[in-house]
Amino acid sequence: MSFQKVHHEAAMLEFPKNFVWGTATSSYQIEGGWMEGGKGWSIWDIFAHTPGKIIDGTTGDVACDHYHRYRDDVALMGAMGLKAYRFSIAWPRILPTGRGVANKDGIRFYSDLIDALLERGIEPWITLYHWDLPAALQMELDGWLYPGMADHFASYAALCFEHFGDRVKHWITFNEPWVVSILGHGQGVFAPGRVSHVEPYVAAHNILRAHGKAVALYRDRFQARQGGQIALVNNCDWREPLTDSPEDRDAAERAVQFFLGWFADPLYRGEYPEIMRRRVGERLPRFSPDDVSRIRGSNDFFGLNHYTTMYASLPRPGEDVRLAARGNGGIAEDQEVRLSTDPSWQKTTMDWPIVPWGFRKLLQWIHERYDAPDIIVTENGCSLDDRIVEGEVRDQSRIDFLRGYIQQCHEAIRQGVRVKGYFLWSLMDNYEWSSGFTKRFGLHYVDFPTGKRVPKSSAAWYSRLMRTNTLPE
User: Fold this and answer.
1) Phi, psi at residue 256, to the nearest 5°?
2) Positions of the chain with pLDDT under 70
3) Residue range(s) defining the domain that contains residue 331
4) Which residues are CB-contacts of 57 (< 8 A; sequence separation ≥ 6)?
5) Catalytic residues, which ones?
6) What is the number of domains present in the chain?
7) How far apart are CA 210 and CA 50, in angstroms?
8) What pLDDT is stored for residue 333 in this prediction?
9) Residue 1, pLDDT score
10) Strand order in the sheet with 238-241
11) What's the predicted TM-score (pTM) here?
């Protein structure tokens, strides 16, 4: 598999001084140690152990065994000259039942990891919630469908600020609430595995409320003396109008507002997009004045995860919109959008089209709609069919992917978009949720039966980029 390379003259683009380069992971995908160190069960522990939920029948019980190998993994980061590392804390490792008495072993693990990173000059960026909700909160309270979850999350966040905030200056409350809402509570393909046309909007609403409470607490009690920043990270694919017709342009805009505006509009404007309020009606909850006061203006930076692009158009007469908009943000029936791709677009092994220019257009859309916020690209990368050949993994296709997307990021910066950092997904191959171990996104190849890590060609390429702050050839 090979991707079209960008022109040579575009290959030596220099990025702004102090641009943040990093990689990212999440706790359930790499840690393992699922029943060690006092950790409680998460909803993903239960979901992965449920027959038929994971494509290859595997679990994240061991994953990459990072829980035992974290010092070696930090050494890998140091060897490639990593500047920043984004990882998540497993809530049930800190609070086994989601509330109550903190687990000292869990706190020690993350404290030691943070210290190991700082010793190598690597800046820790911490995500507080990357989908692994303590199972007790799901079973006892109905998880994110319960309004009181906002208070439980804020209490958990306070523990993390208290124990780690002296050394951690960048916090992310939630990673991709769209995934929790749509895949977890709408389509049922991710934990907790629920199927509904109502629950996604309720879960999203309570996550936003939880974010607002955690940020208010951080700003009130910790931010002044710890000097950190805090934000929520959203994911969004770009939607390009299939034609220049007003109907298709409206469909594309509607699709992006249902995907990204759903979560970003409350953060920057204090309410859901008007198109969502009109189309979803009473199923879309309303924020109280107190909620609005906490949520609006609660992002110190705009965190963005981006992977792909699709065309959007108005569905054909009589077409089933659930099939036409499969994979779209929000509930398909509420959007009236048809999605499609160009047959000439190459795809990753996730079946996601490779469309670098869509990245730039999304960055520009965010810049214009939300009044030029500082943007941190918290995830971007690709899954490929990587293999070890004669002891090496030559993933030129990943290098070509990264070059294309990072070039478009640079172009957005040149046009005035305030992109301040880029985190590549992922540091290493890991457990890809319902796809199990069948997908490889990493800069380091992981032989899952043995846990052995092998740097890929892309690791050396990315290392040069970080060292020179210039896009390599």
Assistant:
1) -70, -35
2) 1-11, 324-327, 473
3) 8-468
4) 51, 436
5) 176, 379
6) 1
7) 28
8) 87
9) 45
10) 238-241, 309-313, 338-340
11) 0.97
Q: What pLDDT score does 9 carry? A: 41
Q: Which two tokens stand for residue 173?
A: 């409350």
Q: Are 122 and 84 in contact (CB under 8 A)?
A: yes
Alpha carbon 205 to its chain centroid, in Å, reads 18
Q: Is residue 70 part of a domain?
A: yes
Residues forming a β-bridge with 447:
452
Give the model confidence (pLDDT) of 170-200 as tens digits: 999 999 999 999 999 999 999 999 999 999 9
Nearest 5°: phi and psi at 424?
-80, 135
Amino acid at 206: N
The span from the CA of 29 to the CA of 59, in Å, is: 10
pLDDT tens digits for range 43-61: 999 999 999 999 999 999 9
Q: Is residue 72 helix, strand or coil?
A: helix
Report the alpha-carbon distance of residue 131 to residue 102 in Å, rounded. 19
pLDDT tens digit sequence for 261-303: 999 999 999 999 999 999 999 999 999 999 999 999 999 999 9
Residue 286, domain member (yes or no): yes
- Let me know if residue 58 belongs to a domain: yes
Give, for 156, the enclosing helix (H) or strand (E): helix 149-164
Contact (CB, 8 A) for 195 and 188 = yes
Strands (DSSP E) contained in 336-434 are 338-340, 375-379, 419-425
CA angle 455, 426, 50 (to 5 degrees): 115
The pLDDT, as a whole number, for residue 149 is 98
Question: Would you state the pLDDT for residue 327?
Answer: 61
- Residue 231 structure tokens: 């934000």
Cβ contacts of residue 209 below 8 Å, gap of 6+?
A: 147, 150, 287, 291, 294, 295
Structure token digits, residue 153: 């999350």
Residue ranges in 274-395 assigned as alpha helix (H) = 274-280, 289-295, 321-324, 356-369
The neighbour count for residue 283, using CB atoms within 10 Å, is: 15
Q: Which residues contact 389 (CB under 8 A, 6 or more apart)?
A: none
**DSSP, residue by residue, 80-108:** TT--EEEEE--HHHHSTTSSSS--HHHHH
- At 100, list the tokens: 């109550």
Nearest to 235 by CA among 85, 345, 97, 130: 130
In this structure, what CATH number is given to the domain that contains residue 445? 3.20.20.80
> 275 in a domain, yes or no?
yes
Interior angle at CA 149, CA 147 and CA 150, nearest 5: 85
Q: Which run of H or of E encompasses 313?
A: strand 309-313
SS (H, E, C) 417-473: CCEEEEEEECCECCCCHHHCCCCCCCCEEEECCCCEEEEEHHHHHHHHHHHHCECCC
